[in-house]
Amino acid sequence: MKNYPLEFVRKDGRRTFAEISILPVRDQAGKICEFRGVGHDITERKKSEEQIRYLATHDGLTGLPNRVLFNQILQHAIQSAKRYGRMFAVFFIDLDRFKMINDTLGHDAGDQLLREVAARFKQTLRTVDTIARLGGDEFVVLIEEIEDLSYVTTVARKILSAVLQPITIMGEECRVTASIGVSSYPKDGEDEQSLMKNADIAMYCAKEDGKNNYKLYSTDIKTQSIERLSIETHLRFALERNEFFLQYQARLDVKTAEITGVEALLRWNNPDLGIVTPTRFIPAAEEMGMIVPIGRWVLKTACLQNVAWQKMGLPPICVSVNLSARQLTDDHLIDDIQRAIDESGLEPRLLELEITESVVMRHPARIAVLGKIKELGVRLAIDDFGTGYSSLAQIRHYPIDTLKIDRSFMRNILANPEDKAIARAIISMGRMLSLTVVAEGVETAEQMTFLQEHACDEIQGFHFSLPVPPEQFAELLRNHSPSSGKSRK
Ligand code: C2E
Ligand code: MG
Ligand code: MG
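^ thats the input. predicted complex w/ magnesium ion below
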């Protein structure tokens, strides 16, 4: 007996599936003379099988293909691109700040947002392109038959602007952005795994680069991401393994040539990576949240060191410590500063905290934190000033004592009239507001003369001293004679 599934179309147009079992009937001579069959309706079973197949290959929320189906489509695309010598591209799309919307407006709002974004992707792309949702706020797009890479950038821009349009969710107008990474076949990978991995790496770089943009995969990106990964891995253990140390760079009074203060600069000595400078690891430490415990260590160490110099009989000076953006939003910051002062016994006026101009500008709400820091009796400085576009009107509202002119101005101060004019304006503005103005990155005697002529208060830079270990700074402080204005290096 044999079973045959058959598809019928009923008179009313409905599709029906039946399973029919057929049995041949033979005559006395053994010849088949007729067939007898029994059939039964299996439409319901067929439908639920289809439903199961659909659910297994599609995302329930948006109706887009899911990872399973996307992988099949990608495999197919690889085979056909290989056969016909064609190019195609994989776009990895991740929404920026989705977690924040989900957390503040709730999961229903998050779901609504994802559905809306999925609908916009469908509208933006051609029907032949594949869009899938991999999970969370991660989408992936496959664009086949690409002639050249300029088309890839056009598509990436279209996707970014589709996401950027405001979305009203639960009566609130939200704006989201996306970060996109693109890998292309065959340049960036000839198999599924490498194409997906490299698009993901490129997306991560787009995020690092400030979000709301796209990056095409390249070997440069790969090198960067490997370095970043290795920094992240080692950074986790750096504090407990005592791999951090501080160097100290003197600040000099321009008029009297006395050492007025010192900036504590963080260094990381890792057995595998060597000495890593802060610009290479602080962004990673910020993102991982590690900057908070690291910053606490810097504060404590710098305060203890300053007291230790005084105990050696050296004149009291102010030590500056850099604070990062993340530390300013940490609830324990004020307690941490207070503890560093109490445990070291340092007079609060001998501690100055530096915050970069861009951090204050981007988050005006943080001015409240600055006020609390001032209440501890600690000094406050705006670092890298001149790069964050603050206006005189804004700076007046900050409870600060010191302005440090960014070292980029010093580089061309003698040759570039604009840099010269800005430096002059900052100096006179600082004077008007009774702030101490410090020029950073002073490397030459000519720069020093310019600053003297324009009555800048203090300088910091290689011209007077490099950042040095604490013992060497003690030597400098002991032996420096103000009359020379120049130390013995
Ligand atoms: P910054 O606070 O503006 O520090 C001054 C930087 O300029 C230091 O770089 C110093 O070595 C460098 N410098 C000093 N004089 C000269 C000069 O004459 N010419 C040139 N070209 N450079 C000079 P460094 O130590 O690499 O630090 C870079 C940045 O990393 C710092 O800029 C600061 O923003 C950050 N940083 C350093 N230590 C810490 C820390 O403990 N915590 C946080 N959050 N950030 C830190
Ligand atoms: Mg600084
Ligand atoms: Mg600076």
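The CA atoms of residues 367 and 398 lie 7 Å apart.
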